[in-house]
Amino acid sequence: MPVESVFDRESLIKKAAQDEKLELKKARAVIGLIEEGNTVPFIARYRKEMTGALDEVQIQSLINRWTYLQNLSGRKEEVIRLIEEQDKLTKELKAAILGAEKIQTVEDLYRPFKQKRRTKAAIAKEKGLMSFAEWLLAMPSSSVAAKAETYISDEKGIASAEEAIEGALHIIAEHAADEASIRQWIRDETLRNGKIHSAVKKEELDEKNIYEMYYSYEEPVARIVPHRVLALNRGEKEDILKVGIQTDTEKIVRYMSKKYKVNDNLQSGVYVQQALQDAFKRLIQPSVEREVRNELTEKAEDQAIHIFSENLRKLLLQPPLKGRVVLGVDPAYRTGCKLAIVDETGKMLYISVIYPHPPKSKRDEAEALVQQVMREYEVEIIAIGNGTASRETEQFIADIIKKNQQQTAYVIVNEAGASVYSASETAREEFPDLQVEERSAVSIARRLQDPLAELVKIDPKSVGVGQYQHDVSQKKLNESLSFVVETAVNQVGVNLNTASASLLQYVAGLNKTVANNIVKFREENGKFTNRSQVKKVPRLGLKTFEQCIGFLRIMDGKEPLDKTSIHPENYPEVKELLQSIGFTTSDTSTAKLTEALGKLAVEQAAEKTGLGILTMKDITDALQRPGRDPRDELPAPLLKTGVMRLEDVKPGMEMQGTVRNVVDFGAFVDIGVKEDGLVHISKMKKGFVKHPLDVTAVGDIVTVWIEGVDVKKGRVSLTMISPGE
């Protein structure tokens, strides 16, 4: 039987479209565009007619499925070839392999044909005991011992009837263990009815009793939630817990016996059942348990990565506070609070350090300096990092505002990763003359002005909005977080004349090298005045130009369309459209043009220019609001002028807070006291909540009510359900 390719591009696209619940023509268009070298942000933004306006997440999900199906097809082809080389490929086996939907199923089918090490069954076969095993499986009623004696042979190394029986049972056990349908049934049974259990192994290693609830723990495999899977894995890795899976052995062996038509009233049937018990316990159970735990871990990792990604996306897309002079404060005790003032563009104006807290406690001196620099630099808002000494520093700043009756407000800024940035090569290049701590104060101030531009300078894993992010596949985590950052950057767009290389590298089609080349070109030649100049940047070819240019904006260039999200490929049609209604490109964002475009029938305009309706709608939106930032439509950060102590918080109080982190079991909300309060998933809204991310996300400003306060432990429990509901 000749080896033939099982890779059929069209059938794989159909399968991917079906799995992702997409129309075939949309899926076909996306795969075609990807194969031509187009990027996900470019396809989502500028090829809507072809894809039916699929968003970045849908496109990436389709690509992931397509890639998996390609790998699956490749493995099927390889396995068919390997079995065929052994001259053991039947029509039925080939059909089963071709019909498999998972790589695991293909591996199960291939298992009997794999080159094995010298197993007990292999040794028994070498001794000529295969025919004895087949005799037993036929369920004869005659004496097994008498039959076994006929296999005794000094030449073959079979010294007794017992040895012959033992060898035959090893052959039967291996045969059962290699049976794909049996392994699949046992795997499914374990997932359906198995129980994951844990016991303490080395309690002395659990100094903080983190794993105490798992010292004697049991839960159905089908119901265990992702964060508990990862907690058990971590406890096992740290040698504190012993983890395993329990199954109903009797039920499984009964199933196997039925498959082999075992008659346990016969002596041969009793022996075969013994072989099947051995097959399960010795050969199947350990590997199926490993596979099931791997499957649980993979699902838990995917969930943890999804939560981290969603939290990161919300953090990156927090609304900027543009055009304000900001005082950034990086709080600390012993080393002092670092101060940095940046102007409206993020340029550093002033740097210093104060010691308002113990051990130095120079509060009066610190207060005088803060008041002086706030007046001198006309500080409009203060950004305080939320790390060590944050609440004491907040109280210090609130006291200054109250004492001087100033209009200045402050915001608590998530400083996670600021120290990582401060010690990075990027920070050293940007501020070579500053100490590490001083750089972090600048970063905190800039995070308030433009969170996206500042956060892209940091490894996304250091942003601190995840759950068990160090326990998951780092490759998958990095891929997912890079996708989130790339999507966020391209949704917002980038100012070509002010963006750092850190920001530019995430623009569609660009990489670190080309991003650095853009910055270098800008430094050597001055500001870009039109988008076409980008073609002169070294290593930036025509395909890259096509992919990136729509996301790069020039706010004060020669061509007014360059500050919009309109792609240069559509400039001729846009100019033709404007001319037909009596305007030019210099009229963008004027009230008259906005009014005229508001009356324009998009369908007619699309027909007139030959562009699609979806593209035309994007163009008319961009002409009315050039330089639009989607983040501006989100609620601004919560500005504060005063501080509360934990002791002041009482049950029943209504408060506003900022969501700092979302996890599987709820959300942590900063309500302005020392510790973030927890809203448990059951307290997020009336009725069933599948996941906290369905209700809220990082950066959201939410109304909460105090449920309980434990001053001693520093814990606050919150609810988002109004007491009247």
UniProtKB/TrEMBL annotation:
GO terms for cellular component: cytoplasm. GO terms for biological process: nucleobase-containing compound metabolic process; translation. PROSITE patterns: S1 (PS50126). GO terms for molecular function: mRNA binding; structural constituent of ribosome. It comes from the Bacteria. InterPro entries: HHH_9, NA-bd_OB-fold, Ribos_protein_bS1-like, RNaseH-like_sf, RuvA_2-like, S1_domain, S1_Tex, Tex-like_central_region. It holds the Pfam family S1. This is S1 RNA-binding domain-containing protein. It comes from Bacillus aerolatus. Residues 652-721 form the S1 motif domain.
